[in-house]
Amino acid sequence: MNDEIVTAIGTPNVALVKYWGKRDFKLNLPTNSSISITLDESLNTKTSVIFTEKLKEDAMYINGERTDLNDVSNEKSRFTRDIINYMRDLSETKARALIVSKNSFPTASGLASSASGAATLSYAVSNALGLSLSARELSIIARKISGSACRGVIGGFVVWRKGEKADGSDSFSEAIADEKYWPDVIDVITLVSSAQKKVSSSEGHRMTPATSELYESRPKSAEGRVKRLEKAILQKDFNTLAEITMKDSNSLHAAMLDTYPPIIYMNDTSREIMYAIHALNENEGGIIAAYTLDAGPNPQIITLKEHKNKVIDAVKGIVGRDKILVAGQGSGPRTLSAAESLIDETNMVPK
Ligand code: PMV
């Protein structure tokens, strides 16, 4: 497969029970299992990869900027380099890689850009090398770059089982139900701010377990929520899904605040949106929407297609209609045609 550009598209995933805290930092092994929805291509990462003997060294460009893969102080670069080397060894080639990647949405703003990037990268690299990896193998590879990415290589509702083994071989994602099972569940994303977060998730994964007493109960309670949520998804029980989603997000952000020094991702606008969702549910006499926040101030509101307009009406006065995106469920990464390539093949540079 060398000398052939492969271009892939992948998407973020939104966690309903979240991953925060690692039992192994090198392998990205989590302290609890987590559940997410892989989103459709409304928000996406496109990545082109070529392996060729024509290059002297590996090069990677993300959103137009060259990323130093040898920068050992940057965990994500280090993991990415290790993954490229690992897959290159698997395919028994010495060719160097040129990787060009672009996100259609703000990076590091709590919209899972790293998950989308790492899931798409793992998929694109394995295809460029002609490796036929199983979903499980791909999930384990993506996990090593960015934990939450291991969920994004699979479509629909996904569970990442934390696993028990020290080598991480049982810590991977699998489908609970694909994107066609309960397609009514959608995500209304509110872009409160596109500013980069002050505390990276990598730092947060370390700081919260190390300093928060509140966090101590989380691994066990999150595991219970994962069990109940899996059942709720299979039964298409939106009420239970929504309540677990909001409670998990709130409990995580409480532990973040309890971290020392505190980690605060929410802002006043995020909180206003949370209140608006509770008010909406109260008016409706039942839960029709659930907010959830990752490591950033942008609430994502999980709802059913039939309630989409009510949810938008409830929050558009707070963030503005132009800051609201709606995403359905997606099927995970896929390859695109050669016409979509981000690489200028003649000069071996980004287009
Ligand atoms: O995969 P990371 O290291 O970027 O951590 C992601 C953590 C959260 O987005 C906050 C939660 C999750 O499960 O996606």
Concise summary:
The chain has nine helices and 18 strands. It is an alpha+beta fold. It folds into two domains: 190 residues, Ribosomal Protein S5, domain 2; 143 residues, Alpha-Beta Plaits.
Shape: globular
Q: What is the CATH C-level name of the largest domain?
A: Alpha Beta
Number of helical runs? 9
Mean pLDDT across every amino acid position: 94
Please outline the major beta sheet. Answer: 6 strands, mixed
Enumerate the spans where pLDDT stays under 50 for 5 or more consecutive residues. none
End-to-end Cα distance: 21 Å
The overall strand count is 18
The main sheet orders its strands as: 8-7-9-6-1-16
User: What's the alpha carbon Rg, rounded to whole Å?
Assistant: 20 Å
SSE order, one letter for each helix or strand: EEEEEEEEHEHHHEEEHHHHEEHEEEE
As a percent range, the share of helical residues equals 25-40%
Task: Report the structural category.
Answer: alpha+beta
CATH architecture of the largest domain: 2-Layer Sandwich
Describe the structure.
- By secondary structure, the chain is α+β, with helices and mostly antiparallel strands.
- The chain has two domains: 6-179 and 331-346, Ribosomal Protein S5, domain 2 (2-Layer Sandwich); 185-327, GHMP kinase, C-terminal domain (Alpha-Beta Plaits, 2-Layer Sandwich), CATH 3.30.70.890.
- It is 35% helix and 22% strand.
- It has nine helices and 18 strands.
- The chain has helices spanning 75-90, 113-128, 135-145, 149-152, 201-211, 218-234, 238-257, 268-284, 308-319, and strands at residues 6-10, 13-17, 22-24, 29-30, 34-38, 45-52, 59-62, 65-67, 96-103, 157-160, 173-177, 185-190, 289-292, 300-304, 324-327, 334-336, 343-344, 349-350.
- The strands form five sheets. A six-stranded mixed sheet has the order 8-7-9-6-1-16, covered by helices on one side. Strands 2-5-10-11 form a four-stranded antiparallel sheet.
- Helix 2 (113-128) crosses helix 3 (135-145).
- It is globular, with a radius of gyration of 20 Å.
- Bound molecules: (3R)-3-hydroxy-3-methyl-5-(phosphonooxy)pentanoic acid (PMV).
- (3R)-3-hydroxy-3-methyl-5-(phosphonooxy)pentanoic acid binds next to helix 2 and helix 5.
- (3R)-3-hydroxy-3-methyl-5-(phosphonooxy)pentanoic acid (PMV) is lined by residues 15, 18-20, 34, 112, 114-115, 146-148, 201-202, 205, 294-295.
